[in-house]
Amino acid sequence: MQCDAKFDFLTRKHHCRRCGKCFCDKCCGQKVALPRMCFVDPVRQCIACALVSRKEAEFYDKQLRVLQGGATFLVTFGNAGKSETMVCRLSSNQRFLLLDGDSHHEVEIAHISTVQTFAEGPPPAGGNTRATGMSLQYSTPGSEGVTQLKLTAGEDASASRRQSVAWLAAMHKAAKLLYESRDQ
Questions:
Q1: Got the DSSP string for 1-67?
Q2: Sign (positive/negative) of CA torsion 142, 92, 99, 136?
Q3: Which residues contact 161 (CB under 8 A, 6 or more apart)?
Q4: Quick one: which of 10, 32, 62, 120 has the fewest CB in 10 Å?
Q5: Is residue 102 part of a domain?
Q6: Which of 44, 65, 86 is the last residue of a domain?
């Protein structure tokens, strides 16, 4: 399916355990773990799927803990001018964003349609920009239209701001990974 190899007795077909397409050994020779599909040992995958599987594994190893640990944000729903201090975290089943403060909200991950990260300029010493907030658009079952949710990290240089910035970076990586896997 990728290199137009002719299959015969010596050139065998192999199928990618992630996408199911057939490839020659050269195009489907990488063995990568695929725990989300219940493969315990590394399995044969095509080049494109192996790359996505490695990114997923890195995400699960590093970023998931940060998202489930949560962070404190100033949260604004819709066009309301009033913000509320809330802890935002990913649920243990990874299906919801949970927001807890004076009120409680749950946003189903599958219903998030848009994720936009806000960042401040590059630090004075150079390097990468630092995330300061995030805007999510999502639909709520039973209601029409979309709701916007804005998360803003605190302005101080405290540990909670660092935790919020780390959470935003992990969420940005999660969204990027989610949209890459949807496109395949």
A1: --S-PPP-SSS--EE-TTT--EE-TTTT-EEEEEGGGTEEEEEEE-HHHHHHHHHHHHHHHHHHHHH
A2: negative
A3: 153, 154, 155
A4: 10
A5: yes
A6: 65
Number of H helices, E strands in the chain: 2, 11
Residues 59 and 85 grouped into a single domain: no
Same domain, 77 and 139: yes
Say yes or no: 110 and 28 in one domain. no
Whether pLDDT at 97 is above 90? yes
Same domain assignment for residues 51 and 27: yes
Indicate whether 2 pLDDT > 70.
no
Phi (first) and psi of residue 7, to 5 degrees = -85, 135
Residues counted in the chain:
184
Q: What is the mean pLDDT of the chain?
A: 84
φ and ψ of 103, to 5 deg: -125, 175
Q: What is the extent of the structural domain holding 91?
A: 70-121+132-183
- Dihedral sign from CA coordinates of 100, 101, 107, 113: negative
As for how many domains the chain has, the answer is: 2
- pTM for the complete prediction? 0.67
Asked, for residue 127, whether it belongs to a domain, the answer is no
Whose tokens are 């599987």? That residue is: 53
Q: In this structure, is the dihedral angle defined by the CA atoms of residues 113, 37, 70 and 184, taken in order, positive or negative?
A: negative
DSSP-derived secondary structure letter, 136: E
